Amino acid sequence: MITWRRVTEGDFGLLREWLAQPHVARWWHHDTSPEAIARDFGPAARGEEPSEDLLVMLDDTPVSLVQRCRYADYPDYRAELAAQIDLPDTAVTIDYLLGDLARVGQGLGPRIIRAIIAATWTDHPDAAAVVVPVHAANRASWRALEKAGLRRIGPADLTPDNPADDRTHEVYRIDRPATPD
């Protein structure tokens, strides 16, 4: 069973371990010092910023981190993407990682993405769509999105997480399901 809760400061050690894993570090390119983890994850953990850092569990075992936020809460990021694609004002985005390499390639990523997106429609009742840019070279990530039901809507030229990468991203989208009349 997949469940999740908000990340707390007590989870920072686990996040440091996951972010240091080569399969995660390649794409997240995050400083794993205790100070950097506290700086970057602390405000969301304390409710001081609008993003949601979610610790995802499989049968009560932590396996994943999902970050979810509304583009409207990050105007610079929204502007960079909205200049290139049709981005609804109420769109939400996610970012995600599987912490344990042994769990990669088993279909868990798409399951987590589907579950988080399904919850997004309830948690954010005005969200028109979930729109996710992924670096074009991160095939595993964009394949997980496709398997979770998102469709590719086009390329975008965006600042990469890893400065070693070029700016080429693919953008995926899923719209809020229609409600019966």
TrEMBL record:
Organism domain of life: Bacteria
Comp. bias (Basic and acidic residues): 164-181
Organism: Streptomyces gossypii
Lineage start: Bacteria, Bacillati, Actinomycetota, Actinomycetes, Kitasatosporales
Name of the protein this chain belongs to: Acetyltransferase
InterPro entries the record matches: Acyl_CoA_acyltransferase (IPR016181)
Gene3D superfamilies in the cross-refs: 3.40.630.30
Regions that span the bilayer: none
Region (Disordered): 154-181
